[in-house]
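pasting for the record
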Amino acid sequence: MSNAVVLGFSGGVDSACAAEMLRRRGHEVRCLYLETGSGEAEAARYLEKKGYKIIGLNYSCRVGEIDVIAEKDGFAAIVEVKLRESSEFAEAREFVTRSKQAKLRRAALHWLMTSGTELQPRFDVVEIYTGGREHIINHIENAFE
């Protein structure tokens, strides 16, 4: 049995569960993104370039959804992705309301309890602005507690 497993994320819960099961069995999991046009996939690629290991993409449970879960330096970054054309009206991070933050906390707690991870959770926001020739991406670590 190979020690490296390639797993394609389609954005569903099944992919995230399969990846976690394989990691628990000692496999190294490398994620490929099938929905290349999505903001979540773009944020995940950006985070990987910054040295993060993607654990989950579009994790969903009965209490909420997490766009991206990424690991680095002992932290599990619970990432909310906000895609906007520009910041003219408001910065993308401003759309992560208190209500959305509460839903993310509940979904993160569910993921932490079911994943068996010992990583310290942290809530980040990735803003993606698509209005120019190139996308502008901002990663805000510890965006809220």
